[in-house]
Amino acid sequence: MSIAAAQVQNTSVITVPVPLGDRAYDILVGRGLIEVAGPRIAALGARAAAIVTDEHVGPLYAQALSQSLQANGLRSSVITLPPGEATKSYTSLERVCDAVLEAKIERGDLVVALGGGVIGDLAGFVAAIVRRGVRFVQVPTTLLSQVDSSVGGKTGINSRHGKNLVGAFHQPSLVLADTALLDTLPVREMRAGYAEVVKYGLIDDARFFAWCEANWHGIFNGDLERDEAVAQSCRSKAAVVVRDEHETGDRALLNLGHTFGHALERITRYDSARLVHGEGVAIGLNLAFRFSAALGLCAISDAERIEAHLAVVGLPTRLSHVPGGCGTVDELLDAMAQDKKVKGGSLTFILAKGIGQSFIAPGIEAEKVRAFLTGEINASRS
Amino acid sequence: MSIAAAQVQNTSVITVPVPLGDRAYDILVGRGLIEVAGPRIAALGARAAAIVTDEHVGPLYAQALSQSLQANGLRSSVITLPPGEATKSYTSLERVCDAVLEAKIERGDLVVALGGGVIGDLAGFVAAIVRRGVRFVQVPTTLLSQVDSSVGGKTGINSRHGKNLVGAFHQPSLVLADTALLDTLPVREMRAGYAEVVKYGLIDDARFFAWCEANWHGIFNGDLERDEAVAQSCRSKAAVVVRDEHETGDRALLNLGHTFGHALERITRYDSARLVHGEGVAIGLNLAFRFSAALGLCAISDAERIEAHLAVVGLPTRLSHVPGGCGTVDELLDAMAQDKKVKGGSLTFILAKGIGQSFIAPGIEAEKVRAFLTGEINASRS
């Protein structure tokens, strides 16, 4: 038996079901899952698979995955794209759609997304529209994509009018979250993904947040706690998605920390050297709770506890932590006003009555946001 | 009261419901419907509409439609594209998606397709993917699009690998089939659309075929029979689509005449000067019944009756009617083998036991098709 096969045998796999009726699927979480991807994917019954990946991830895993699929009877090909957000473009969409058609992928066949959120979003969208929909499998290779973008079926590309403005809801047939792939993830990316893990506790699961406080070392080290954190995050997101697949209501809870976070990403012009998505979310989570406290909704001690935990893992938590500055109050408000969640002179926020007690709060007056942000900016100067 | 308003009041509107659960919608059929499009569309409750049209149809109706929408409280804009199949491209897709976003169309708002099948397919696809899906309304302006492409939710663009290979299933919220718009349709386009009308009778409604034989003059003349023919065609297609929305079974019946027809379109290189889709379908319908007769499935007299009717309205019915020739047997078989309906050495045909008794016939050996086509070509030479 090879070492890889022995490791596989020792792997304990956690299965997270996503019960979406005739679009139901499983998320499998565990170390070394990519080693058994061939038989797992072949069990879906397709005859062919087109693997979509990027120039960072492809050289590490694409060939092995392709061979594993072929060994299990699937015709397989690899499409490799440049890494980075710019790949979520119309140009890539055409290129990948044509490559998938060139690979003779039929209705019953598969597109396999091997990469982070960019690859998952693009490949999922391609799968949604080639031949009006083929099946797809996600093999997310970052913590962020394992706990966030691989759950829920949102796919898409960016337009010059904004991010993710063109896309489809298309559920995967299977998600393989191999937590061993995170061993080589840069720590900054690991932290950024961790902000989304913490978010699930803050939304509606105070016990999970406390568990994160106690176990974050194990998550970062790649111990069994990492698998459990990924699985629990997927369970949390799946529960919300099942209640509201197409985001007409409850699914907005997943935007906790994101109204502030998206504004900061806009202000830093999506320059990942300054701020990545998860860092914006970390600051946003802290601000959402501080804003809730300022509105008298929640205890300031809850916000302080959250800030302390985000800080201990090395995440930014304050407007003053944004490299190059967060802009003026007016710039921040403008950036928020471009968000989908704005109606008239008021904004929709996700606020909280405490850790694990978040709720959708429509109709928050822009003036209250202004007063809060002014205080935050002044405090950072003093 | 204006003349237009008086005409509207005298219009009898036929409502064809398409009962697709939470995607249910109505097809309205009648003369002068475009005059009351504003209130009908406004009743859907949107705040804005982006009208997508082409350079032929737009100058005739787009401004009036836009004003009618605005008079009923909808912000409205017009996007005009070149006419013709080449508009179903990635380039147009990007252009229209960006124009719709520029027009600030939100989730609850509308894309309105004003044109024939090309505009309907493209605009419907844009509606399916902008913001992961906005609503859309079809105002089909050709007989073909009124009875075929505006029913059933198939949307899409062409790829260099083939027609309609990239797209989505996206049901409209409303279809307004104004039969008066067909008064100015070139007779060749009218005939081509009529081939699809006849098809519905041939699939499973012998009475409707007999009714067409008796009433085709009224349909072409714009009498009340035209409204009834459009409505009955929509009812027929809707019944099939409701049974099989995503084409996994019964919906293939709608391909009656299309395996031969698509092959002829390919051989004539989609050159509409030589052959338009409906002409290919007319020849294909006759061949499907002649092939069924050759296989001993149906009486040759049924095929002869169909051919006589198609000929009387001025449609081509034989391979020898293709301007510039239909190619050799091998070329025809090759063109059929490129069709989605081919598996291994056998083809899936829609065959018939008689008029109104069509069925899906998988596993028809290529050799039987070859023998039949050889006979057809030899007969045309003698």
From TrEMBL, chains A, B:
The keyword NAD appears for this protein: yes
Textual note on the cofactor: Binds 1 divalent metal cation per subunit. Can use either Co(2+) or Zn(2+).
Biological-process GO terms, alphabetical: amino acid biosynthetic process; aromatic amino acid family biosynthetic process; chorismate biosynthetic process
Binding site for NAD(+): G117, V118, I119, G120, D121, T141, T142, K154, K163
InterPro entries: Dehydroquinate_synthase, DHQ_synth_AroB, DHQ_synth_fam, DHQS/DOIS_N, DHQS_C
Function of the protein: Catalyzes the conversion of 3-deoxy-D-arabino-heptulosonate 7-phosphate (DAHP) to dehydroquinate (DHQ).
Protein name from the UniProt record: 3-dehydroquinate synthase
